[in-house]
């Protein structure tokens, strides 16, 4: 008869509740992995599948708020369970209701509405605010604290089993938290420069990772490596800002690395500073190779019938046309305002007259596969 007096709608805390909490923790863990990846690396191109998962998660979290008003509570003061609906509601309102409502904020629906009405005219400020809104969602996902409920559930199970089970669960939870910490830190490493539109001295620009040909895997691996390096205090990365012409020549132009310092200095004196506006054609395919360019700041797009690629700070184009007096192999167009240093063929050959050994080396030099000639 006592069972007949129990509320018919509230859930049994010992059976369905445990599996339900495990399901919610799994969904939350997937969100904690996927959302930082989306806001940091996908730049609004997450695809229909991920947007569907976002909407599903938001819907599930909203439903979860309602279910928690009817879900039985395991009392820690006694071996029994609280199944009275009034007590359940009062307990939930005083404990997890506000955090759960914040975590259940329907960002997925907001994104769908934003894409529907602003897909044709996106603005930089709107994009930034949307990314910040999603980042706030990560901070509001306090459902990670529900792992404590799962741990209590595992403790109940492990108490009836071997000690090795309890140790395994503790080690597993430790590694999960370490993974999340490294994952979040790695995403933040890329997310912060992205909000600042990749300043000229940021590590993303130095590694040429903000261009379209850089994959998400490359960006993520660099970010996680930097995060792990900082967390283990090995001080990865240079504190020097590579802005000087000497650094550009020495590090980015392979054929200057082993040259006589006097030759490099003579070349530096011949450089001419040039500025191109967005959309300007810097060189055209098959045009005479009369100049070579070094990018101080900006992005260019290199294209011919065989390949397409973007270049940015520290890269160069024109290449061996300076030595062979050939023609440019691709058209190069400025994607942003570009500040370049150019070296004319006449100036280059006038310097080479005083360095015959270097001239022979340059004529036989083959650029590696990562260098782009035009």
The radius of gyration over CA amounts to: 30 Å
- Total E-strand runs: 10
Secondary-structure element order, N to C:
HHEEHHHHHHHHHHEEEEEEHEEHH
Proportion of strand residues? 5-15%
Mean pLDDT: 71
What summary fits the major beta sheet?
4 strands, antiparallel
Membrane topology: Multi-pass membrane protein
Transmembrane segments: 20-41, 53-75, 96-117, 129-146, 167-186
InterPro entries: cNMP-bd_dom, cNMP-bd_dom_sf, Ion_trans_dom, K/Na_HCN_channel, RmlC-like_jellyroll
GO molecular function, one term: voltage-gated potassium channel activity
Account of the 3D structure:
Pfam families: cNMP_binding (PF00027), Ion_trans (PF00520). The chain has two domains: about 5-230, no CATH class; about 245-365, Jelly Rolls, CATH 2.60.120. The strands form three sheets. Strands 3-10-5-8 form a four-stranded antiparallel β-sheet. The protein is elongated, with a radius of gyration of 30 Å. The protein is an alpha+beta fold and about 375 residues long. Helix 1 (about 15-40) packs antiparallel against helix 6 (about 125-140). The chain has helices at about 15-40, 45-65, 85-95, 95-105, 105-120, 125-140, 145-160, 165-195, 205, 215-230, 245-250, 260-270, 320-325, 345-350, 355-365; strands spanning about 75, 80, 270-275, 280-285, 290-295, 300-305, 310, 315, 330-335, 340-345. The longest helix is centred in the middle third of the chain and has 33 residues, at about 165-195.
């Amino acid at each position: 008869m006592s069972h007949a007096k129990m509320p018919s709608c509230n859930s049994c805390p010992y059976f369905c509740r445990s599996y339900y909490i495990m399901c919610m923790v799994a969904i939350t863990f997937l969100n904690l992995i996927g959302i930082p990846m989306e806001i940091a690396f996908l730049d609004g191109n997450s695809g229909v599948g991920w947007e569907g998962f976002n909407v599903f998660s938001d819907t599930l979290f909203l439903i979860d708020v309602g279910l928690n008003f009817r879900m039985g509570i395991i009392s820690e003061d006694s071996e029994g369970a609280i199944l009275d609906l009034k007590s359940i509601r009062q307990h939930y309102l005083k404990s997890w209701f506000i955090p759960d409502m914040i975590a259940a904020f329907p960002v997925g629906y907001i994104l769908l509405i934003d894409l529907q009405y602003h897909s044709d005219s996106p603005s930089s400020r709107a994009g930034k605010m949307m990314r910040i809104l999603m980042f706030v969602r990560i901070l509001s996902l306090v459902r990670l604290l529900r792992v404590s409920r799962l741990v209590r559930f595992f403790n109940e199970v492990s108490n009836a089993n071997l000690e090795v089970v309890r140790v395994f669960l503790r080690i597993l939870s430790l590694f999960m938290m370490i993974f999340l910490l490294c994952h979040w830190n790695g995403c933040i490493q890329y997310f912060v420069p992205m909000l600042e539109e990749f300043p000229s001295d940021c590590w993303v620009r130095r590694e040429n990772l903000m261009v379209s040909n850089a994959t998400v895997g490359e960006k993520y691996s660099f970010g996680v490596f930097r995060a792990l390096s900082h967390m283990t205090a090995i001080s990865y990365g240079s504190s020097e800002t590579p802005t000087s012409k000497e650094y550009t020549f020495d590090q980015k132009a392979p054929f200057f690395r082993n040259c006589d310092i006097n030759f490099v200095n003579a070349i530096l004196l011949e450089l001419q500073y040039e500025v191109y506006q967005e959309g300007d054609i810097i060189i055209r395919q098959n045009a005479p190779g009369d100049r070579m360019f070094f990018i101080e700041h900006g992005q260019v797009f290199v294209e011919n019938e065989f390949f397409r690629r973007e270049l940015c700070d520290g890269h160069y184009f024109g290449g061996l046309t300076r030595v062979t007096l050939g023609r440019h192999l691709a058209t190069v167009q400025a994607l942003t305002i570009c500040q370049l240093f150019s070296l004319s063929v006449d100036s280059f050959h006038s310097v080479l007259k005083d360095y015959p050994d270097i001239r022979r080396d340059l004529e036989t030099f083959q650029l590696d596969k990562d260098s782009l000639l035009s």
